[in-house]
Amino acid sequence: MDLNAAYGFRMDWIVSFVAVARYGGFSAAGKAVYRGQSRISEHVAELERAIGVQLFDRTHPTSLTPEGRALLPRAEEILRNLQSLNGGGEVRFGAYPSAAAWLFPRVVRRLPDSIRLLLVEGPSIDLESALLRGDIDLAVRPVHPLVTDESLVHEVLWREPLTAVFPDKHPLADAESVSLAQLAELPLISIGEADGPRQFESHLAFASAGLNPESAFRTNQPQTLLSLVRHGLGVGVTNQLAVTTANLDGVRLVPIHDAGVDRQVGLFTRGDRGHSPSLAKVIEAVRAVSG
């Protein structure tokens, strides 16, 4: 290692480079790190001159060159290592809303004050993209829909059953349990994207039973599902945690005795990158709370 050569580099060059890569442009990077766009441009240009390669294609939209893509994980590793020198740091915690409502506060209480945990909520598919972009450091999301990038690895934290959600005046609202066949005859409200593939657990449960009901509505938000049910627009099918952490006025939860499929919730991280001490402590806390 040439220590003298290291004096030729400034840390703010590396910060500006990572910021442009992460936020997709010089202006957005400047806003994110509270620097002027011209200063960000100067930093990146100085870094390019120092290492003798062009890091960005500056045509619109700004994109990394092959050399920039090769440098990015190394630059991010430098920043992670620097941040972890004092055993503390900032960890960006991605989670879908119902998991965040239950899990996040319990994890925060297990962490030392030196670790700052930032919550980023979103649908499962958005969390996958955010983790790949480096916008979050970990994601707690359902295993289904399956991730599409092999660089993401996961461990299952918990399993939870599917449940039916009825308006409280519905004839089946007081039933001890219902079957998939009974639900398939009713207008259904399910978790999923309106035009997306049927990879969510409720769709897999019906498919495994040889049933193919049409959803009257699909939504990614448990509160929206409950509101649609409450207003008599259908019967909901979703995972139990999503609705037990929400307002249940005007609805009833009924077990599905033959669902055959449960929701597996996983902790996802980048398998191609190491964990900083701060991230490792957060992962340990997540496991302790979930276990």
TrEMBL record:
Entries under SUPFAM superfamilies matching the protein: Periplasmic binding protein-like II, Winged helix' DNA-binding domain
Keywords: DNA-binding, Transcription, Transcription regulation
Alphabetized Pfam families for the sequence: HTH_1, LysR_substrate
Domain HTH lysR-type: 9-65
Protein's UniProt name: DNA-binding transcriptional LysR family regulator
Gene Ontology MF: a single term: DNA-binding transcription factor activity
Similarity remark: Belongs to the LysR transcriptional regulatory family.
Cellular component terms (Gene Ontology): protein-DNA complex
CDD domains: PBP2_LTTR_substrate (cd05466)
InterPro entries referenced in this protein's UniProt entry, alphabetically: LysR_HTH_N, LysR_subst-bd, WH-like_DNA-bd_sf, WH_DNA-bd_sf
Isomerase listed as a keyword: no
Domain of life of the native organism: Bacteria
